[in-house]
Amino acid sequence: MVDFGTAELTLEMIQASQVGLKAVGAGLAVGLTGIGTGVAEMGIGAAAVGATAENKDMFGLALLFTVIPETIVIFGLVVALLLLF
């Protein structure tokens, strides 16, 4: 005789694990892009401060170069939202 109660419990467990793995994937998408952006801005920020110290007119360009890697985090957030919804 087949016990259908355990079959429903197993299906619920599979669905719960799928939702959990989606959440892990979304967290990885945002987390890894954040780490990548931090590493990229580390070198860019140091060079931007040095360039601004030598020439005050370079501030706008240095700020632009510092902000560009932050768009990568926005892409990671979009991927995470696509995974969750």
TrEMBL record:
Occurrences of domain V-ATPase proteolipid subunit C-like (ranges): 24-83
Keywords associated with the record: Membrane, Transmembrane, Transmembrane helix
Entry superkingdom: Archaea
Primary residence: membrane
Transmembrane regions: 59-84
Family matches, as CDD domains: ATP-synt_Vo_Ao_c_TtATPase_like (cd18181)
Membrane topology: Multi-pass membrane protein
SUPFAM superfamilies: F1F0 ATP synthase subunit C (SSF81333)
Protein's recorded name: ATPase
Native source organism of the sequence: Methanoculleus frigidifontis
